[in-house]
Amino acid sequence: MQITDYELFAVPPRWLLLKLETDEGVVGWGEPIVQGRLETVRAAVTELVEGYLLGMDPLRTEYHWRKLYQSGYFRGGPILMSALAGIDHALWDIKGRHYGAPVHDLLGGHVRDRMMVYQWVGGDDPGDVAKSAKRDRERGYRAFKLNYPQEFRPLETPMAVDRAVDRIGALRDAIGRDAFLGIDFHGRVSKPMAPELVRRLEPYNLMFVDQPLSPEHGDGFESIATRTTIPISTGERHYSRYDFKRLLVEDAVSIIQPDVTHVGGISEMRRIVSMAEAFDVSVVPHCPLGPVAFAASLQVCFCSQNALVQEQDLELHDPESSQRLALLDDPAVFGFDDGYVDRPTGPGLGIEIDEESLRKQAQTQVNWNNPVWHHEDGSIAEW
């Protein structure tokens, strides 16, 4: 079997999908994307596929991963690792379809029958956030995450800290104490402010505080972790096992959140998750993207003992009405119930793409960029 062709599809809201074709008619799908850098990643995928993969046997997944990563003198980083990730998804999809097995079977077999997923809660008004979370709790979700605070200055007033803490308190009241709640600082909080804000949040029994500092200041994670009872996490802006290594060795985090679209795909994410297990570190994969990325991430979760909860942004509670699941032949394929999704049993990634719908959506202009925030003095704020 040989790889003969490929196509890339940009679709709303900010996704890029890769289709790899073979001379035996077996097709694999991947999702290579850096949100806000779609065209840059498209160019990187094109270079890698045309320069290295066309005419190759797709079943040599490990060899291709090493070649695509290691043959470049300049390697790593969000663009190259995300391009590699989408290719790796598609190669594993082809491999699973060739052998008639889900990817998690090829990685050792499943260790669980269903996987808890969490719901992202957005909005600016604390009352609206609480209402949204309560509604999603009634829809069956049992775990939630909120990106907060918003524009937070390097030194903040007591009132600003109080406001941030009160908002989390309202959210906890809305979902109850029988649900998980994680907070993502999104790298918006400075080293002087992060320890105090984390300490003030301890009464709300959080599942984690994610990215308490930006990745540029990762050397400060250990200090925060030793001063709080809340599990500290990070990982969505780390791109390989080498980026995670120091965090694990220094015991700086209790949870990591690798993204299967940014860490080089299923192959590298599986290695990262296994490495974390040796340090008794749990995994909550980051995945605010499309159904291909979600399916790829699930394949790793189902064969990984230390995977805890999986992020999703697909409206799994109402698949028939979800525009984000409309790319699939069967929008209900993930089987959401009581806050969990069922183990995928189909070959490869376990999903089938509705190409007619995909090609229709790909005619839409996709030009998403993350917002640029400013503090009240006009300086740039972390988004």
List keywords for this structure.
globular, 383 residues, TIM Barrel, alpha/beta, ten-stranded mixed sheet, Enolase-like, domain 1, three-stranded antiparallel sheet
What is the gist of this entry?
Its EC number is 4.2.1.6. By secondary structure, the protein is α/β, with parallel strands linked by helices. It has helices at residues 38-53, 61-70, 77-99, 103-106, 126-138, 158-175, 194-201, 221-225, 241-249, 265-277, 291-301, 355-361; strands at 3-11, 15-22, 27-30, 114-121, 143-147, 180-184, 208-210, 232-234, 255-256, 282-283, 310-312, 336-337, 340-342, 373-374, 380-381.
Write the layout of secondary structure elements.
Blueprint (H helix, E strand, L loop, with lengths): L2 E9 L3 E8 L4 E4 L7 H16 L7 H10 L6 H23 L3 H4 L7 E8 L4 H13 L4 E5 L10 H18 L4 E5 L9 H8 L6 E3 L10 H5 L6 E3 L6 H9 L5 E2 L8 H13 L4 E2 L7 H11 L8 E3 L23 E2 L2 E3 L12 H7 L11 E2 L5 E2 L2
Parallel strand pairs: 4-5, 4-11, 5-6, 6-7, 7-8, 8-9, 9-10
Antiparallel strand pairs: 1-2, 2-3, 4-13, 12-13, 14-15
Helix pairs in contact: 1-3, 2-3, 3-10, 5-6, 9-10, 10-11
Radius of gyration: 20 Å
Number of E strands: 15
- Supply the CATH architecture of the largest domain: Alpha-Beta Barrel
The total of helices stands at 12
- Secondary-structure element order, as H and E? EEEHHHHEHEHEHEHEHEHEHEEEHEE
Query: How many domains in all?
Result: 2
What percent of residues are in strands?
A: 15-25%
Overall structural class, as computed from helix and strand content, comes to: alpha/beta
pLDDT below 50 for ≥5 consecutive residues: which ranges?
A: none
Mean pLDDT: 96
- Indicate the overall shape: globular
- Output the CATH class name of the largest domain: Alpha Beta
Q: What is the CATH topology descriptor of the largest domain?
A: TIM Barrel
Q: What about the largest sheet?
A: 10 strands, mixed
